[in-house]
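Hypothesis: this fold can be encoded by more than one sequence.
Test: take the structure tokens below, design a sequence, compare later.
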């Protein structure tokens, strides 16, 4: 009725995308290990809220504007890279501080579920590559003669969000038991330092991305 097709292939594609390590998965992983299931779910909810924004942008044509405008793409890209660097700086600061909370994830004080939700939203929304991805992926599963292309975009976008949410919830529940491991302070600081390096690398990769 909506003019979509090959939905089984679409679901498989979405799963592969969700399972591919990237900024969203790394943020969910680090927030789960540091703040527990609730923290991981809050970050995941923010990420999915960001996907809702991208799906709406694709349906309304805003993603096409980003694809067409070098200036818009560059501004969003650099904003996203700067935010990832800010997250990397926070992890590096924890790695260098040497205090008990930084060394022991079980004792880490959560910044609040709302703050973790915002982190998820910003890391996702400030990534123009995701906007272009929605613009490139969704039309492949919409018939050329679909009577309501906007509704078809919204339907596939909603499917992506629901399936992505299920994947991230399962991922949080899978990795949460790792918090029971109590590494020495030096090892935990090393993990924080490695996480900082990872986010810095992701920021550099985003900054160097081409349209």
């Amino acid at each position: 009725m909506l003019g979509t097709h090959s939905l089984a292939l679409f679901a498989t594609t979405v799963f592969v995308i969700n399972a591919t390590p990237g900024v969203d998965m790394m943020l969910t992983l680090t927030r789960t290990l540091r703040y527990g299931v609730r923290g991981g779910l809050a970050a995941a909810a923010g990420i999915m809220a960001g996907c809702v924004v991208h799906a709406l942008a694709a349906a309304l044509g805003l993603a096409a504007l980003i694809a067409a405008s070098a200036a818009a793409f560059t501004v969003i890209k650099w904003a996203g890279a700067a935010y990832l660097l800010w997250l990397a700086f926070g992890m590096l600061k924890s790695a260098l501080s040497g205090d008990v909370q930084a060394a022991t994830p079980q004792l880490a004080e959560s910044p609040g579920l709302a703050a973790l939700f915002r982190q998820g939203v910003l890391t996702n929304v400030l990534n123009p590559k995701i906007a272009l991805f929605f613009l490139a992926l969704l039309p492949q599963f919409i018939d050329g003669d679909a009577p309501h292309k906007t509704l078809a975009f919204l339907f596939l976008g909603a499917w992506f969000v629901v399936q992505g949410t299920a994947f991230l919830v399962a991922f949080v529940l899978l990795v949460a038991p790792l918090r029971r491991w109590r590494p020495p302070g030096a090892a935990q600081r090393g993990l924080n330092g490695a996480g900082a390096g990872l986010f810095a690398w992701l920021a550099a990769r985003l900054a160097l991305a081409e349209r």
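The radius of gyration is 18 Å. Residues 23-207 form one domain.
Hypothesis status: open.
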